[in-house]
Amino acid sequence: MDEFSFIQSIQQTYYRQPSLIKGVGDDAAVIRPTGEDIVIAKDMFVENVHFNRRTMTPYHIGYKALAANLSDLAAMGARPAFYLVGISISNDWTKEELADIYNGMKYLADRYKVDLIGGDTVSGKELVISITVMGLTNKDNSRLRSSAREGDIVFVTGTLGDSQAGLHLLLNPNTTIHTDEQYFKERHQLPNPRVKFSLDLQEINRVALNDISDGIASEAHEIAEASKVGLVLIEDKLPIHPALNQFDAELQYRWKLFGGEDYELLGTVSPRDWELVKQSAERHQVPITEIGYVTDDSGKVFLQKENGKMERLEKKGYNHLSR
Ligand code: ADP
Ligand code: MG
């Protein structure tokens, strides 16, 4: 298959976004701004760095690449609208596998009504996927990391450490656990970006959000630094899936604090608005947990232990160190 029939094969037959003037097929796409703020993000995925063929099918690779990008939009409170895909392909990938990569992306694109409006196709040694997503927010309504204030509640969606548990199972096929093996693997391969929950927070004036791509310790530092506040995370309250306790206590600890790729949302909000956040989570069946509070200790993150002792948390993301 040549480049041109490939591009033909991935084109959408119709577009959903009304602000799109020209999608795939010219030198560039054309969008007519509608007065909302435009939010743009890019995330790249490189074979044998971010994924490999042993742990991820082509479908998973495409799905997860777009999921990570949509998660960035969720962390900004933006409504996803468009994406562009730059792809470098080696000869090892068959036509069917390439189609499956795009099928993985298409699943999420359909679900969130995001249009594929362009990209670039080249050949190279390894598979590289570079996605750019564009979303829209109401004017000045982006959920910035710099919005946390002293006295806020710290919350997190979902459960922590699942993706790393899944990766561990995929990399060590001889490890067997009694229950939920498939659950953990799928949390690694098919993460669920919290797009709808985040959009539903719009009536709240101020929420700081960050998505968990590198581990909660790292994301908490990003909020603390950007907002010049301190974050205290209460160890007992960090939500984990009940089946995670089948793993070593040391692994559980590392995964929940420093394991990445859960694509859950970490946030802070004034106690006054916490009830509204919980209601949005409930409407979208997203588990949500209050896990700590914000102090004036600029740039620092502490873990409050069971005995009340405060332990300074490092910023390191377990994920990148382990690769
Ligand atoms: P040009 O040579 O002008 O850069 P291309 O032949 O690279 O044009 O691309 C033609 C059209 O197909 C453009 O609209 C481009 O955005 C789109 N396109 C190319 N590769 C991809 C891809 N991998 N995914 C989505 N759209 C793509
Ligand atoms: Mg081009």
Structure description:
The structure is a single chain. The chain has 323 residues and is α+β, with helices and mostly antiparallel strands. The chain has two domains: 3-137, PurM-like, N-terminal domain (60s Ribosomal Protein L30, Chain: A, 2-Layer Sandwich); 145-312, Phosphoribosyl-aminoimidazole Synthetase, Chain A, domain 2 (Alpha-Beta Complex), CATH 3.90.650.10. The chain contains ten helices and 13 strands. Strand 12 and strand 13 form a beta hairpin. The longest helix has 18 residues, at 95-112. 44% of the residues are buried. Residues 318-323 have low confidence and may be disordered. Bound molecules: adenosine-5'-diphosphate (ADP) and magnesium ion. Adenosine-5'-diphosphate binds next to helix 1, strand 4 and strand 5.
Oligomeric state = single chain
Structural class computed from helices and strand pairing: alpha+beta
State the shape: globular
Count of folded domains:
2
Round the Cα radius of gyration to an integer and report it.
20 Å
Helical proportion? 25-40%
Ligands and ions found: adenosine-5'-diphosphate, magnesium ion
Instruction: Look at the structure and give the mean pLDDT.
Output: 95
H and E string: HEEEHEHEEEHHHEHEHEHEEEH
Task: Label the CATH architecture of the largest domain.
Answer: Alpha-Beta Complex
Largest sheet: 7 strands, mixed
Task: State the CATH topology of the largest domain.
Answer: Phosphoribosyl-aminoimidazole Synthetase, Chain A, domain 2
How many beta strands in the DSSP annotation?
13
Quickly count the helices.
Answer: 10
Unreliable segments of 5+ consecutive residues: 318-323
The proportion of strand residues reads: 15-25%
The CATH fourth-level homologous superfamily of the largest domain? PurM-like C-terminal domain
Specify the CATH class of the largest domain.
Answer: Alpha Beta
Q: If strands are numbered along the chain, what order do they take across the biggest sheet?
A: 8-10-7-11-9-12-13
Termini separation comes to: 34 Å
